[in-house]
Every structure is written in C-alpha cells, then in structure tokens.
Amino acid sequence: KAGVTQTPRYLIKTRGQQVTLSCSPISGHRSVSWYQQTPGQGLQFLFEYFSETQRNKGNFPGRFSGRQFSNSRSEMNVSTLELGDSALYLCASSYDNSYEQYFGPGTRLTVT
Amino acid sequence: LAKTTQPISMDSYEGQEVNITCSHNNIATNDYITWYQQFPSQGPRFIIQGYKTKVTNEVASLFIPADRKSSTLSLPRVSLSDTAVYYCLVGDHGSSNTGKLIFGQGTTLQVKP
C-alpha cells in the first residue's frame, strides 16, 4: 500500500504570495490532518478534513485554509505569505478519527 | 487534553535498552497514550499506543501503571538508527479532538556507537 504523498517537496515563495500544497492519503483513509512544524513552535495542528468536511481546526489565522476532494486528496492554501510561514508542512491520514496517523514526508516551504 | 512532560534529551549506546518516561498527571478516563518517532526532515511515525498495563509490538513496549499518570516507552537494544525525537501524546478519540494530535517538545534520543 502506498504511503502518504505530498507535493511539492520543496517550495520557495516571496512574501505576499500565496501557495497551495497537496496531499494524497493512503488508499482507504478518509481523514486528512495538516500540521506545521517550525523549530520554535514545534508541531502544530492546522486542521482536519473528513469526507470533504473540515471537522477540526487549530489556532491559525484565516490565511491558512484547506479543502478535501471526494477522493480524499487534500490541499492546503496559505495566502499573503509571511516570513514566519516558513516551515515544514506535514499531512497525515488515518482511516477515521484515530491517534494512529500516517504522515507524509512534508513540504518544506521557504518564504523570502 | 492532558499535558505531558518528558525529558528533553537522552543519550544511550548501541545495544542498550532505552526507557523514556512521560508524565501525564491529568490524564482523563477516555484518554489513550500514544508514542511517535520522528527523524529529521521526515514526518512522525506511529510507534505504539496503549490504555493500561503493557502493550508490546515488534518495535517497542509501552508500560502504563495502574494510576495511568505516567507511561514508559521501552526500546530494546537500540541502534544508531534509533536516534530520533520521541513524542508522547495523550488524548481521547472524542469529536472535539478529531484528527488532532497535540505534540509536545518530545525527547531527543541520541544513540552513540
């Protein structure tokens, strides 16, 4: 069974731009969660989608948004990028509401 | 969600058994205890989960005392490749926490030759 895939793996953007990251969950998994990891703040939960609906959301500004498609693939979007958005963005999938999540390799976003 | 406390770092040598203890004094009745491992520039990997007593899989063992206020992740005969950050997470599967893992600072384990 293929693991969680994320594209792109690396991205460099300029402050003020917007970016879209993609995540393909493990086949059969319906829940997709997104996390931001930085050296200063560690791993922080962004939001979770299940059957195309956002079920949970972390404490991030509205510039961070996401969606999930009928095939469970998910995208997250960050608008008006700030330097502080530079981070490793991780996507994780699970079959349902489970503490056993499978993480992808992440997208390394650098904002200059 | 219960707050967890674990050592910031630990050192060990190859072939030794490593025990990482996590304190979670405010654990709730419905909470499970889960451990993840993360290598640099990779996503975390689920290691083990338990509710009470002892759980063992091919990678590790998890010991949970009767009061459940702490837990110990045991890694038998570590190797250099076990050098990673280990996170202890505590929480339930209720609707308010759906899909949400709360990671603390974790324990950086350094295995030396």
Stretches of chain A where pLDDT falls below 50 for ≥5 residues? none
SSE topology string of chain B: EEEEEEEEE
Portion of residues within helices of chain B: under 10%
Average pLDDT of chain B, rounded to a whole number, is 92
Q: What count of helical segments of chain A does DSSP give?
A: 0
* Percent range for β-strand residues of chain A: over 45%
The two chains with the largest interface, and their residue counts, are: A-B, 31 and 25 residues
Q: How would you sum up the major sheet of chain B? A: 5 strands, mixed
The pLDDT mean of chain A sits at: 94
Q: What overall geometry of chain B do the principal axes of the alpha carbons give?
A: globular
Low-confidence stretches of chain B: none
Question: Which structural class do you get from the secondary structure elements of chain A?
Answer: mainly beta
Rg of chain A, alpha carbons: 13 Å
Coarse structural class of chain B: mainly beta
Oligomer: heterodimer
Number-wise, the strands of chain A total 11
H-E order of chain A: EEEEEEEEEEE
Q: What is the 3D form of chain A?
A: globular
What's the alpha carbon Rg of chain B, rounded to whole Å? 14 Å
Strand order of the largest sheet of chain B: 1-9-8-3-4
Q: How many individual helices of chain B? A: 0
